[in-house]
Write a structure and sequence with these properties.
The protein has 191 residues and is α+β, with helices and mostly antiparallel strands. It has helices at residues 67-76, 128-134, 139-146, 178-186; strands at residues 2-8, 12-16, 19-23, 28-29, 34-37, 40-41, 59-63, 95-98, 110-112, 117-123, 151-157, 159-161, 168-170. It has a single domain, classed as PK beta-barrel domain-like (M1 Pyruvate Kinase, Domain 3, Beta Barrel), CATH 2.40.33.20. It is built from four helices and 13 strands. Strand 5 and strand 6 (40-41) form a beta hairpin.
């Protein structure tokens, strides 16, 4: 398991069908070590603290195994060329991870990096801002249908994270699966 990119952004205007809103969803990769504090990565912001950020949602991680799916649907929606690589941070993720996906994660699991420890706290729930950055109006609905939500992480032990680092998954109590919780909380809701 490896960190492929570490991404941050400050809040800026994002055009949506309902008008401009503040958002930090357009994350950009950072070279070198990035400091991880209790409320997230240094240089990163969350514009809407009612749904992002805080101690339980300090860091957002997304599995790169889902990139092929999103490349295909973006091409089908005619917002990208077939096979066009997805830029790091497109999903608003702070960490792009390889070797792991939502099916392997449970609430309370720990991701142990060489210099910090993050805890799986909850799934990410998509919103209209996700549709805006993906470039088509059904992106949030496809995230819900696919279950490709990624994970919010709490900072259990501050430190630094660098792209290219390996990490270990340390199981927690294994009572509630991340994907199971995502499906339960999105069942019957429209996106």
């Amino acid at each position: 398991m490896q960190v492929l990119s570490v991404n941050v952004a400050l809040a800026q205007a994002l055009a949506t069908p309902g008008g401009e809103v503040a958002s930090a969803i357009r994350k950009q990769p950072v070279d070198g070590p990035v400091e991880v504090r209790s409320l997230g990565l240094v240089g990163d912001e969350q514009a809407d603290l009612s749904v992002h950020g805080g101690l339980a949602k300090a860091v957002y991680a997304y599995p790169v195994v889902h990139h092929a799916f999103w490349q295909t649907v973006r091409a089908q929606a005619r917002v990208a060329a077939p096979g066009e690589p997805l830029p790091p941070g497109l999903f608003g993720e702070n960490l792009a991870l390889s070797g792991i996906d939502e099916g392997a994660l449970w609430i309370g699991d720990r991701l142990e990096f060489p210099d910090c420890v993050l805890g799986v706290s909850e799934p990410r729930f998509p919103c209209f801002k996700f549709n805006a950055v993906m470039g088509f109006p059904k992106a949030a609905k496809l995230m819900v249908e696919s279950g490709y939500c990624g994970a919010y992480l709490a900072v259990l032990s501050p430190g630094t994270i660098t792209a290219g680092q390996s990490f270990a998954l340390v199981p927690g109590r294994r009572e509630v699966g991340l994907r199971e919780l995502f499906r339960a909380r999105t069942r019957g809701k429209s996106f």
